[in-house]
Amino acid sequence: MRIRTAYDLGRLIRSHRKSQGLSQRALAEKVGTTQSWVWAIEQGKPSAEVGLLLRTLDVLAVEVNILAPWDVEHEETKQISNYPDLGNLLDGPESRER
């Protein structure tokens, strides 16, 4: 799902919460916030603490990938397997000889 607005993010959170059978109160307890905060986020609150948002997504097991237009030319057609192995890039050619 492509997230472009706070409303989109709220819909995503609500969808995942409901698919896991969690009430807003139960999710709030797992995240360490209030039910009213969860309600506001699900309604598309335009400002929210990033840490709580990330914790909420983590509790719901939602993986976040951020792509900038200059990083990936056609993100819809790219697959994760098309990306280089970061370990090999960082270790250099000598690590491949082992």
Strand fraction: under 5%
- Which segments are poorly predicted (pLDDT under 50) over 5 or more consecutive residues? none
**Number of DSSP helices?**
6
Shape: globular
Mean pLDDT, rounded to whole units? Answer: 81
Structural class: mainly alpha
What is the chain-wise order of helices and strands? Answer: HHHHHH
Query: Quaternary status of these chains?
Result: single chain
User: What is the alpha-carbon Rg in Å?
Assistant: 18 Å
What percent of residues adopt helix (DSSP H or I)?
40-55%
Total E-strand runs: 0
Largest sheet: none
Termini, distance in Å?
Answer: 40 Å
Description:
The chain has 98 residues and is mainly alpha-helical. The chain is built from six helices and no strands. Helix 2 (24-31) crosses helix 3. 12% of the residues are buried. The mean pLDDT is 81.
Summarize, please.
The protein is an all-alpha fold and 98 residues long. The protein has helices at residues 6-19, 24-31, 35-42, 50-59, 86-91, 93-96. The termini are far apart.
Strands, helices and their partners?
Elements: H1 6-19, H2 24-31, H3 35-42, H4 50-59, H5 86-91, H6 93-96
Keywords:
single chain, 98 residues, mainly alpha
